[in-house]
Amino acid sequence: MLNEKFLTDLEEYLKSGRLEEDFQYSSEERRLEILDYLERLMDLADVANEVATKIIFKNSQLGQLFKNTGTKDQK
To answer: CA–CA distance from 35 to each of 1, 6, 20 (Å)?
Structure first.
């Protein structure tokens, strides 16, 4: 499921300025698609951060503390 080549290509596309150039020369409809894509990418980054945190702290004392704190906040 993990595809390093895709991530590398996406990173290069973002850092190179090509996405900004594509946005600049695109129609309004395509610009909205690009903005939607970037918004989804940022949402996925938030999910990845949450999953990484769970993986790192799972079964640790600090992880249990966060788990218990989160439970209290939800009540």
So the answer is: 25, 19, 11
Whether residue 67 has pLDDT greater than 70 = no
Q: Evaluate whether 13 touches 19 at the Cβ level (below 8 Å).
A: yes
Supply the pTM of this predicted model: 0.72
Domain containing 26 equals 16-74
| Alpha-carbon span 15 to 11, nearest angstrom | 6
Whether residue 10 lies inside any domain: the answer is no
Which of 41, 54, 53 is CA-nearest to residue 11? 41
Judge whether 57 and 66 are in contact, CB under 8 Å: yes
Q: Is residue 22 part of a domain?
A: yes
